[in-house]
């Protein structure tokens, strides 16, 4: 962590200021230290350059373990992530990040953290409950405006100082997705905006009724080393079909099923498609949300809905804003 991160952090228990003690510095980063909350008489360690607040986590341990493994296994960053990220957060554009203080809910290996930092954010604070934070730190440590923190998304250890929050592909893996959404909203300033991308129930019938039960009762319970060859075997026909048949959405005058999504991922190389397949098989929890459920989150949080769009016919991307006069999170 860099020293300036301390000005954004707060105790996840009482919301108070934290004191940095017993630091060991390497270059620009504090690699080892302790974040102390005097009122709570609680210390939070800084290990391998990342502040760790997970001792107070109420997150799903199996989910954290699954994604911690996944992003350590598939740690590389792809040049395609920029376009993909902007697709997921539309109508937010790269210019929307400029000079903003940004909060990321669930950063995985840091692929979106890198994009937000390179878009010119004043600072990007990326949270993740899993050990993937070590990969994210490695992928972002040379970016002076990127900060990685290991913490439960339901209890963000940060102040209410952010202009923009985003969460891509994370909330639907929480035990209570709306709770995570509200937690991010609570750290936005009046006038701040939040954009999220989540799995949709509409357009995902075969996954909801076939893949999801298999994942929940079988594949997510397998040892990761055994799930790897299963994901590899499933990726082979997906890659072949997407690169051939689904290069076009219409064949012989008929629209292909699942055309929007499979045509979209046809651009990805084999390894990236394998990551997608593994992702769908490894998660112990995954909710597929209806449009009205996402609308309900926005309404109950007291936000103004700016945009709610279906993406690739099988997911939702939603942008909403905190009213300027709103004082509660």
Outline the structure in words.
The protein has 329 residues and is of the alpha/beta class. The chain has helices spanning 61-73, 81-89, 111-118, 133-140, 177-185, 205-217, 224-243, 259-265, 270-282, 291-300, and strands at 19-26, 29-37, 42-47, 50-51, 101-105, 123-128, 146-150, 162-168, 188-199, 250-251, 254-255, 304-311, 315-321. A hairpin with a 4-residue loop joins strand 2 (29-37) and strand 3. Helix 1 runs antiparallel to helix 9 and helix 7 (224-243) packs across helix 9 (270-282). It is globular and about 70 Å long. The chain starts with 18 loop residues before the first strand and ends in an 8-residue tail after the last strand. The mean pLDDT is 93.
- Report the sheet with the most strands, covering strand number, pairing sense and barrel closure: 7 strands, mixed
Q: What fraction of the residues are assigned to beta strands by DSSP?
A: 15-25%
| Mean pLDDT over the full residue set | 93
How far apart, in Å, are the first and last alpha carbons?
27 Å
Strand order of the largest sheet: 7-6-5-8-9-13-12
| Cα-atom radius of gyration | 20 Å
SSE order, one letter for each helix or strand = EEEEHHEHEHEEHEHHEEHHHEE
Structural class: alpha/beta
Instruction: Report the strand count.
Output: 13
Oligomeric state of shown chains: single chain
Shape: globular
Can you count the helices? 10
